[in-house]
C-alpha cells in the first residue's frame, strides 16, 4: 500500500527517499503561506477508512505484536473516541483498529518464512517468521469446500472422505500474507484475506524488498507526530517510466506498472509460471555439466512456446497440448510486439517480413469437474534434433558445456602430472593445452553429440517418446520468444505495482548473438529425421485407455471375468510397440489418475484401473459402486464364516469312533518312519523318557497292525542315549526269558521271521558301507525248556494266547543327522577307495579314467532293506512344552533322498 501525504514536509521527505523513475499519485498541497494549522481527519472518517483497501499497512511482525489499540491513543484523540463510543460505532471493551505509529490500520501486509503449519477441519494455521517475531495466520477454508462437505453430510449416504484443501505453501517457503489483526488469548493473530508464496507473486527477494520498504515507511510515514489526514486517491493511475537504450536486439516490451495507491488485484495462480530455470548465459561454471544440459533440454521441450503456422491448421491433433508455462498478465497487450531479426543475417537492407502471429502459451491445468483434454488440438507438435540444435538458448548452453568439460579435462591432466612429480615437456604441455582449445571444425560435432546423448538419456528415462505426427518447423528468428522459460531480475520499490525491471533481456540477447553458432554452419536436416515429444500424462492417457479396451476384449474372448486392468497388464500391451519400451509404471499411474479425474477410469485398487463402459459398469457414481462392492464382500465373508462354523460343528459331533488296532485296514505301510522334533526348552531327562516311551508304544502298535519296519529319527542324536532303555523294554530276537507260573503272562512262540533267518543275533548291526544307524530286530522272546510234566499244559495255554494276540516281528532302525549328508560323503569315499584299490591291483602301469560315481551305487549302499530305506509313510511328532507355539512341520535333517515317494 502507498500513502499519499498532504503536508509539505512529508512530501519533501517522500521525494527525498523515492527514486526519480517512479512517481506517486497527484497529491493535494496546502498553500505554504497559509498560517492556519492542519486539522486531522475525524475519528469516524478514520474508522471508515480502515476498511478501505488503501488502509493495508506494510509492516513487520514485531509491529503487529506491538501496535497500540485505538483506545490506547486516548491522549491524542480522547474526544473523538468518546464521540465514537456514543455513536455505538465502537464498544468500550473492544478495539476495532490499531495505530501503527501515527497511521491507523486494521489490515496489514507481512512477508516472512513459514515455520509451522497446522491443518484443522475448518481452517489452516500458518506460523510466519520474518526475523522480528512470529505470528499465527488464521486462514479459513473456502466456501466451496465447506458447502460441498455440508451437502454430502446432509444426504445421509456413504460418501468418500472429503479432504481439506492443501496449504498454499510448505514449511520453509516465503509467503506474502495480507490479513486483519485480531486479539486471541492475550496475543494477536492475522485473519488471512490473501496468502501467496513470494516466489509466485514476484521474486524470491520479496522478503528483503519488503523489509526495506517497511524501514522506509517508518522513517517517512509511521513516525509523524502530527494528526493523521486520510490520503486522497487518484482515479487515473500513472505508468512508471523505464529508460530504454536503443539497440539492435531490443529487449522485450516493458511491463506497464501503476503507482496508484489503490491495491492492485492479485493475479490468479493458474496464470503464473510454475518452474523457471536460470538463463543459460547466467549459469555458473560448476553448473555446466552434461546432466544440467539434459535438464534444460527436458525443460525446453516441456514448456517451450508453441509456434503456429498457416499450414498447420490442416492438422488434427490426437490429444492435449504439451504443458506450457503461462505468461504473467500485464496491462499492455503483446500483440504488437516487433519480431526480432535473425543472427545469421543482421542486414539493414533485408526485405521486411510480415508480422508473425503471437506465440501460443497454452495452459495445462487438470480439472476434476470437466474434461481436460480438448477434442481438437493443433498445438501438439514433435521436436527433432535439428530443431533443438537451432534453439539459441540450448545451442549456447551446449557450447558452454563442451568448453567447460574440455577445461576440466585439461585441469585433470595438469593435476595428474603435478601429483606424479614429472616435469612436463613442451610436447606434453602443448597436448594439454590442446584439450581446452577445440578446433572450429570439431566444435559443432561435439555439440551435436551432446544433443544426441541428452535425447537418448531422456528416452531411456521415459521422459520422451518417438513421434510420428506433425513436427515443429524451424524458427524464422534465432531468438524466439522464450523469456517466460527463464528467470529475470526484478527490483521492487515501495509498492507491488511500482516495479523496475532490469535490462537482463538485452544482456541475454547480446550473449546469444555473440556465442550462438550461425544457422548456416548447421547441415540441412534429413526429411525423414526422427521426432520426439515429451511423455506427459495427457498424451499417454489416450493410449492407456486403448490398452484397457484391448484387455477387456481379451477377457471377453477367453470367457474369463474381467476384474480390472493392472499397471503391469497395461504395460504388457503398450510394450508390444517399441515406442513404449522405456515407459515405466509411474507414467501409467499418472495417466490413470488423469483418466480417473475425467471420469473414464475407476481405480478399484492400488495399481489397477477399470474402464467405465456401459457393458462393464452400471451408470452410477464410483463411490456408490465401492459401497455396494464392500457390502457384498461383507455378506460373502459372513456366509463363508457361517458355513465353516456349521461344518466344524458337524464334524465334531458326527465324527466316527476310531477303529481298534486289530481292525482290518485296506492300506498298511510296510515301512513307517517317525520323526521326533524335540524342543530345546524340554529338559534332557524328560525328553529321553518321552522318546523312550513313544518308541516302545510305536513298536507295539506296529507289530499289532502288521508293519514290518519302523524307522525312528531324531536330529540331535538323542536316541543313542535311549538305546539301553529301549532294549530293556522291548522283546528282542534271540533273548531267552524264563516263564513264570502265573497265568497272566504266557510268552508266545514266535513265527518264522524273515529278518531272523538272514540277520545275526546281535541287536546292533553295523556293516561296512551302511549308513550309521542302529537296527534292532524285535520279536517275541524264546522261552526256556521246562519240566516234562508241565510242558504239555504250557503249550496248550501258549497256543491259546497266540490265537488271541497275533504279533509280527519288527525291524527297528534308530537314526540321527549322521545318516544324512555325512553318510553320503562316507559312502562316496568308500566307493572311490574301493575303485582305486581294485584298479591298482588290475593295472599298475597304465593310467585309467577318473572314477564316476553313479546314483544307483549310492542307492544300493544307502537304501538297503535292512538299513535306512525309503519309508511309505512318515509321522512328524513334536516334543514341546505346553506353552510353546506349534511350529510348522519340518524334516530337521532327515535324509531327503529317502522320502521321494513318502507320504508325510
TrEMBL record:
Catalytic activity annotation: n isopentenyl diphosphate + (2E,6E)-farnesyl diphosphate = a di-trans,poly-cis-polyprenyl diphosphate + n diphosphate
InterPro entries linked: NA-bd_OB-fold, Nus1/NgBR, Stn1_N, UPP_synth-like_sf
Localization, UniProt: Chromosome, Telomere; Endoplasmic reticulum membrane
GO cellular component, one term: dehydrodolichyl diphosphate synthase complex
Gene Ontology terms for molecular function: ditrans,polycis-polyprenyl diphosphate synthase [(2E,6E)-farnesyl diphosphate specific] activity
Domain CST complex subunit Stn1 N-terminal stretches: 95-147
Span list, region Disordered: 322-353, 734-759
SUPFAM superfamilies (UniProt xref): Nucleic acid-binding proteins, Undecaprenyl diphosphate synthase
Polar residues bias locations: 324-351
UniProt cross-references to Pfam families, sorted A to Z: Stn1
Keyword Mitochondrion among UniProt keywords: no
Pathway noted in the entry: Protein modification; protein glycosylation
EC number(s) given by UniProt: 2.5.1.87
Coarse class of the protein's main subcellular location: nucleus
Cofactor: Mg(2+)
Family: Belongs to the UPP synthase family.
Protein name in UniProt: ditrans,polycis-polyprenyl diphosphate synthase [(2E,6E)-farnesyldiphosphate specific]
Organism listed in the record: Psilocybe cyanescens
Amino acid at each position: 500500500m502507498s500513502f499519499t501525504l498532504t503536508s509539505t514536509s512529508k512530501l519533501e521527505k517522500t521525494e527525498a527517499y523515492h527514486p526519480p523513475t517512479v512517481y506517486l499519485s497527484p497529491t493535494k498541497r496546502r498553500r505554504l503561506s497559509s498560517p492556519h494549522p492542519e486539522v486531522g481527519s475525524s475519528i469516524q472518517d478514520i474508522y471508515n477508512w480502515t476498511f478501505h483497501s488503501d488502509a493495508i499497512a506494510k509492516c513487520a511482525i514485531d509491529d503487529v505484536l506491538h501496535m497500540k489499540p485505538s483506545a490506547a491513543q486516548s491522549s491524542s484523540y480522547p474526544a473523538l473516541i468518546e464521540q465514537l463510543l456514543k455513536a455505538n460505532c465502537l464498544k468500550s471493551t473492544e478495539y476495532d483498529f490499531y495505530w501503527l505509529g501515527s497511521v491507523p490500520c486494521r489490515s496489514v501486509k507481512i512477508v516472512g518464512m513459514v515455520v509451522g503449519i497446522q491443518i484443522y477441519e475448518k481452517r489452516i494455521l500458518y506460523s510466519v517468521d520474518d526475523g522480528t517475531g512470529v505470528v499465527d495466520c488464521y486462514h479459513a477454508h473456502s466456501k466451496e469446500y465447506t458447502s460441498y462437505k455440508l451437502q454430502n453430510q446432509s444426504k445421509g449416504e456413504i460418501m468418500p472422505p472429503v479432504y481439506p484443501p492443501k496449504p498454499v505453501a510448505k514449511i520453509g517457503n516465503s509467503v506474502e500474507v495480507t490479513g486483519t489483526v485480531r486479539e486471541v488469548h492475550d496475543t494477536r493473530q492475522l485473519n488471512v484475506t490473501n496468502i501467496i508464496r513470494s516466489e509466485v507473486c514476484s521474486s524470491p527477494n520479496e522478503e528483503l524488498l519488503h523489509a526495506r520498504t517497511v524501514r522506509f515507511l517508518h522513517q517517512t510515514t509511521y513516525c509523524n507526530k502530527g494528526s493523521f489526514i486520510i490520503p486522497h486517491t487518484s482515479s487515473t493511475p500513472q505508468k512508471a517510466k523505464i529508460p530504454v537504450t536503443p539497440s539492435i536486439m531490443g529487449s522485450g516490451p516493458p511491463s506497464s506498472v501503476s503507482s496508484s495507491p489503490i491495491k492492485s488485484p492479485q493475479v490468479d495462480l493458474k496464470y503464473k509460471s510454475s518452474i523457471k530455470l536460470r538463463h543459460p548465459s547466467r549459469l555458473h561454471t560448476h553448473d555446466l555439466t552434461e546432466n544440467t544440459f539434459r535438464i534444460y533440454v527436458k525443460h525446453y521441450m516441456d514448456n517451450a512456446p508453441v509456434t503456429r503456422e498457416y499450414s498447420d491448421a490442416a492438422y488434427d491433433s490426437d490429444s492435449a497440448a504439451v504443458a506450457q508455462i503461462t505468461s504473467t498478465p500485464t496491462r499492455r497487450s503483446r500483440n504488437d510486439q516487433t519480431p526480432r531479426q535473425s543472427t545469421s543475417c543482421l542486414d539493414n537492407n533485408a526485405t521486411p517480413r510480415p508480422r508473425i502471429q503471437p506465440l501460443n502459451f497454452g495452459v495445462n491445468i487438470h480439472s476434476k469437474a470437466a474434461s481436460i483434454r480438448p477434442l481438437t488440438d493443433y498445438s501438439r507438435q514433435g521436436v527433432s534434433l535439428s530443431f533443438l540444435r537451432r534453439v539459441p538458448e540450448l545451442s549456447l548452453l551446449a557450447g558452454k558445456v563442451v568448453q567447460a568439460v574440455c577445461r576440466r579435462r585439461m585441469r585433470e591432466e595438469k593435476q595428474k602430472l603435478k601429483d606424479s612429480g614429472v616435469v612436463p615437456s613442451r610436447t606434453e604441455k602443448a597436448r594439454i593445452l590442446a584439450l581446452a582449445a577445440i578446433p572450429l571444425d570439431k566444435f559443432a560435432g561435439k555439440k551435436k553429440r551432446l544433443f544426441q546423448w541428452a535425447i537418448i538419456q531422456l528416452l531411456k528415462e521415459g521422459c520422451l517418446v518417438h513421434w510420428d505426427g506433425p513436427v515443429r518447423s524451424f524458427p524464422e528468428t534465432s531468438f524466439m520468444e522464450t523469456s517466460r522459460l527463464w528467470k529475470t531480475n526484478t527490483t521492487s520499490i515501495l509498492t507491488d505495482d511500482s516495479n523496475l525491471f532490469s535490462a537482463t533481456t538485452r544482456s541475454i540477447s547480446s550473449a546469444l548473438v555473440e556465442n550462438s553458432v550461425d544457422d548456416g554452419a548447421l547441415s540441412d536436416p534429413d526429411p525423414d529425421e526422427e521426432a520426439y515429444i515429451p511423455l506427459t500424462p495427457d498424451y499417454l492417457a489416450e493410449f492407456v485407455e486403448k490398452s484397457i479396451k484391448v484387455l477387456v476384449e481379451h477377457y471377453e474372448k477367453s470367457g474369463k471375468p474381467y476384474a480390472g486392468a493392472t499397471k503391469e497388464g497395461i504395460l504388457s500391451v503398450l510394450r508390444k510397440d517399441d515406442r513404449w519400451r522405456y515407459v515405466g509404471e509411474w507414467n501409467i499411474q499418472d495417466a490413470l489418475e488423469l483418466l480417473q479425474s475425467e471420469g473414464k477410469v475407476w481405480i478399484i485398487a492400488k495399481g489397477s484401473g477399470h474402464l467405465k463402459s456401459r457393458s462393464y459398469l452400471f451408470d452410477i457414481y464410483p463411490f456408490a459402486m465401492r459401497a455396494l462392492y464392500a457390502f457384498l464382500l461383507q455378506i460373502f465373508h459372513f456366509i463363508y464364516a457361517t458355513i465353516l462354523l456349521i461344518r466344524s460343528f458337524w464334524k465334531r459331533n458326527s465324527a466316527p469312533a476310531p477303529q481298534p488296532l486289530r481292525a482290518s485296514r485296506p492300506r498298511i505301510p510296510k515301512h513307517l518312519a517317525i520323526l521326533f522334533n524335540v524342543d530345546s526348552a524340554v529338559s534332557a531327562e524328560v525328553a529321553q523318557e518321552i522318546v523312550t516311551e513313544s518308541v516302545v508304544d510305536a513298536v507295539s502298535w506296529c507289530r499289532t497292525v502288521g508293519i514290518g519296519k519302523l524307522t525312528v529319527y531324531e536330529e540331535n542324536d538323542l536316541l543313542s542315549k535311549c538305546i539301553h532303555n529301549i532294549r530293556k523294554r522291548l522283546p528282542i530276537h534271540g533273548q531267552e526269558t524264563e516263564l513264570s507260573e502265573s497265568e497272566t503272562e504266557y510268552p508266545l512262540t514266535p513265527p518264522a521271521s524273515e529278518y531272523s533267518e538272514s540277520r545275526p543275533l546281535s541287536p546292533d548291526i553295523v556293516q561296512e558301507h551302511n549308513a550309521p544307524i542302529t537296527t534292532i530286530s524285535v520279536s517275541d522272546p524264546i522261552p526256556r525248556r521246562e519240566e516234562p510234566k508241565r510242558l504239555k499244559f504250557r503249550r496248550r495255554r501258549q497256543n491259546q494266547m497266540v490265537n488271541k494276540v497275533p504279533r509280527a516281528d519288527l525291524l527297528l532302525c534308530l537314526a540321527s543327522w549322521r545318516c544324512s549328508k555325512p553318510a553320503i560323503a562316507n559312502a562316496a569315499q568308500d566307493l572311490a577307495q574301493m575303485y582305486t584299490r581294485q584298479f591298482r591291483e588290475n593295472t599298475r602301469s597304465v593310467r585309467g579314467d577318473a572314477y564316476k560315481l553313479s546314483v544307483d551305487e549310492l542307492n544300493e549302499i544307502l537304501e538297503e532293506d535292512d538299513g535306512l530305506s525309503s519309508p511309505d509313510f512318515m509321522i512328524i511328532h513334536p516334543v514341546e512344552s505346553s506353552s510353546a507355539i506349534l511350529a510348522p512341520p519340518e524334516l530337521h535333517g532327515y535324509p531327503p533322498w529317502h522320502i521321494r515317494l513318502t507320504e508325510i
